[in-house]
Amino acid sequence: MAHEVTVMGRDGCHLCEVAEAEVARICGELGVAWKAEDVDTDPEWRAEYGDRVPVILVDGAEHGYWRVEEDRLRRALQP
Question: Sorted alphabetically, which Gene3D superfamilies does this protein's record hold (predicted)?
Fold first, then answer.
């Protein structure tokens, strides 16, 4: 099964930039697709994730927030 990772963040958020860089590196090494979404572009996203950004989603389900736990993310992305 092919996984997809989404980083829910916002412009100007330093932790979001760090998370995006870490996710890009990890997903690049594993050949997993990823994308970043701005929570401020959708009122539902802002209500759901706004206080906890960055939030990491794996296959649409919340995996973690504020920091990327590299070992845990790698395990979640194993085939």
Answer: Glutaredoxin
Residue 36, number of CB atoms within 10 A of its CB: 17
Residue 53 CA neighbour count, 13 Å, CB half: 25
Q: Does an H or E element contain 63, and which?
A: strand 61-65
Question: Do residues 56 and 7 touch, judged by C-beta distance below 8 A?
Answer: yes
Task: Report the predicted TM-score, pTM, of the whole model to 2 decimal places.
Answer: 0.95
| Length of the chain (residues) | 79
Mean pLDDT of the chain: 96
Q: Contact at 8 Å (CB) between 8 and 55? A: yes
